[in-house]
Design goal:
heterodimer, A: alpha+beta, Aminopeptidase, 7-stranded mixed β-sheet, 7 strands, globular, B: alpha+beta, 6 helices, 34% helix
């Protein structure tokens, strides 16, 4: 039995004080490359106060249908990103996963893949979910490789879902089943 | 130029009055088959009052994220369902569509297909969206046939997304592009 549930090889999942959360997230949110890889909202300049208010409200809610962690590197204990499960449907045993590594120094070095492995273990062995789903943008090939490494399979593509840089891009839908994850972990 | 934008061959899209729709939706929702074809959350019973309060809050949001209509028959002006675009992403020109027909006697008669044709015309020629998406449950072949008839293409499937009646079912992703719609209509 592994009780170090929230620790991986390179990172651990943590909770943070709203002030630290707000300062870090609004700093990352000002990097338009980060936000364009993360979501489809138009890039904006988030304020620390607004971000903090949102997070305080979010933290007070009883989180029945979502679980949210921040990610710290094991070496240096640096706050580098977040990962969370959203839209958990308990009756079907599925959820969506979202992840962002905000600090560019930690891109392409296995931190995201490690954080994804930890949250999948949490989803499949602590929450006992049956399946995890994600959507990723066609132009984010680094993320797609990372998700494949963590065991996700491409299940479809919303053609031309995004419009950026004067052209359309697909959103790629990926999923992993618990039985596939258990087979990978053997 | 066609100005009769909200009228189809069998139905028209009419106003979404919160009181009328709350009464209809809470009545329709008592049919668990209706609910299971429409939604993935557990079938439950909702009062007219709770439904109206929820609708009023959703419809009040500014800017409107929902373009909601009721569906009425052309021959006797009967309320048979609801249809709406939700989650319009203006920067990318895309939206999801949702539809339901409340009374079993009105299923399989072409009302849904006709209403979908009308809202696609609205989406592609009034809102000028580039794409419309939907998802549908594997066990709803009548809906899938209707969506294929209106021009949607299957773009993927989230395997084993649902657990109902003791087995798992896929969630099917479908989409239609403005180009495709224009080519088939003109």
């Amino acid at each position: 039995m592994n009780n170090e549930l929230l620790t991986g090889d390179l990172i651990r999942l943590t909770a943070e004080d709203p002030q630290i959360y707000a300062e870090t997230f609004s700093r990352w949110g000002r990097d338009s490359e980060y936000t364009r890889l993360l979501d489809n909202d138009p890039a904006r300049m988030p304020s620390i106060t607004k971000t903090k208010e949102w997070f305080e409200k979010f933290s007070e809610k009883e989180q029945v249908n979502e679980t949210f962690f921040l990610v710290r590197s094991l070496e240096g204990n640096t706050l580098i990103g977040f990962v969370g499960l959203f839209g958990i449907e308990w009756n079907h045993g599925d959820a969506w996963v979202g992840i962002g590594i905000g600090d560019r120094q930690y891109w392409g070095k296995g931190y995201g893949t490690d954080a994804m492995r930890v949250i999948l273990r949490y989803a499949f062995t602590e929450l006992n979910l049956h399946r995890i789903t994600l959507g990723v943008f066609e132009y984010n090939s680094r993320a797609i490789r990372s998700y494949e490494k963590a065991g996700f399979i491409i299940e479809g593509r919303f053609r031309q879902q995004l419009h950026r840089e004067g052209r359309h891009w697909d959103e790629i839908m990926m999923g992993i089943l618990r039985e596939e994850w258990m087979e990978n972990e053997k | 130029m066609k100005n009769d934008l909200l009228t189809g061959a069998l139905v028209r899209l009419a106003a979404f009055d919160p009181q009328t729709m709350a009464e209809a939706l809470s009545r329709w929702g008592r049919d668990s088959e209706y609910w299971r074809l429409l939604a993935s959350d557990p079938a439950r019973l909702h009062s007219t009052k709770a439904t109206r309060e929820w609708l009023e809050k959703e419809l009040d949001k500014e800017p409107p994220l929902f373009y909601m209509f009721s569906i009425r028959t052309l021959d006797d002006d009967r309320l048979v369902g609801e249809i709406g675009l939700d989650g319009v992403e203006w920067s990318h020109g895309e939206s999801f569509v949702g539809i339901s027909l409340g009374e079993r006697q009105d299923w399989g008669k072409g009302y849904g297909t006709d209403a979908m044709r009308v809202i696609l015309r609205y989406a592609f020629t009034e809102l000028n969206l580039a794409r419309v998406s939907l998802d549908v449950f594997e066990y709803n072949p009548r809906a899938i046939r209707s969506y294929v008839k209106t021009g949607f293409k299957v773009e993927g499937r989230a395997r084993q997304f649902l657990n109902r009646d003791g087995r798992r079912w896929d969630l099917i992703f479908m989409g239609i592009l403005q180009d495709e719609w224009l080519n088939q209509e003109l």
